[in-house]
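Bug #77: duplicate submission created two jobs. Keeping one. Sequence:
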Amino acid sequence: MKVKNRMKLLICELLVIVMFLPAQLGCAQELQNTSTQTTMPTLTNTTDDNTRVWNPKTIPEAEAITGYDIYTPTYIPADFAISSSIMISRMGFGDNQWKTVTRVWLWKGNRDLSIQLVQNEKPFKIGGGESYEVNGKPGQRAFHQGSAGEPSSLGLAWEQDGFYFSLGGILKDPLTEAEMLKIAASLKHIQ
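Kept job's structure:
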């Protein structure tokens, strides 16, 4: 149960960073209009009309919603499987809005053990992060030591091809820091 709570905390930390730091930096992004008509997956409104969440089932559906290329890891450790949907959140308010894509892979041996990948249009930093090289580029690493026999967690953040990524997970066999760096290095847009 403690692992599950720690994972929820890690996910919340990543979402808070993705949601609020760009607004504090004063970043602005025009929402893209497309000339082609696209059928959008069901829209789920949260309690605030300025934040909307979509759960497309495929990468092409997600790209139609975001208006940008979605990157996918070509390497995921054995026995991890993608969750059933992609989550896209509209962040920000008024003219300062952008879309964030979150995907989760669950380990078949323990569903509390997961890998979270966030792709964002805006720069962000991860809480408690130190400077760290990810994919040969400046990035951040946030390591949180587990206490009293609990596993540690790790978050990585970096920029790649004009997008900003974070990768997080609980470091428990079979997920290691080396595996997470391997996942990060395998990210690419697959057409």
